[in-house]
Structure formats: C-alpha cells, structure tokens
Amino acid sequence: xxxxxxxxxxxxxxxxxxxxxxxxxxxxxxxxxxxxxxxxxxxxxxxxxxxxxxxxxxxxxxxxxxxxxxxxxxxxxxxxxxxxxxxx
Length: 88
Hints:
The structure is a single chain. The longest helix is centred in the N-terminal third of the chain and has 9 residues, at 16-24. Strand 3 (46-51) and strand 4 form a beta hairpin. The chain has a five-stranded antiparallel beta sheet, with no helix packed on it. The chain is built from two helices and five strands, in the order H-H-E-E-E-E-E. The chain has a single domain, classed as Roll (Structural Genomics Hypothetical 15.5 Kd Protein In mrcA-pckA Intergenic Region, Chain A), CATH 3.10.290. By secondary structure, it is an alpha+beta fold.
C-alpha cells in the first residue's frame, strides 16, 4: 500500500492530499529513509512523521484498504522515539 494512503486509512492524517503534501515536504521516513507519497509500506516498517514540533513514530502492523474509524488504530503501533519496545 502507498504511504499516503496508509496515513489516510489509519487516520494518522485526515486527508490523502495532506498526507501527500507532508511526504513531498520531506517530513516522513520509512525505516530511516526519506519517503515519498508513493513509497510502499509493509507490516513491520517503522515510520516517522514530523508534524510541527512533534515526531510521530509508529510500526505498521497490517494493511487494510477500508477500516472503520474505531479500528484505524489497529493498523499501527505507536513507538517511543522510533524504538521498538518489545512485543505488544
């Protein structure tokens, strides 16, 4: 799945156009590498998104095309400063 679509489906970013813009500005990395909107993401990937002064770190857990709002957070696991903190 494309990174911009994952960010939207997971509801980490509300609109896909905004997710693309954030990627185009160089504010997103996947596994430590600068990522474009079309970068594919897979389960196990570590993603960092800079939103203002905040850095969001998370691990992609699964990919789904359509997810109810209440289940969106099941697609990823928040990480502490990009470090995997054991099984969870």
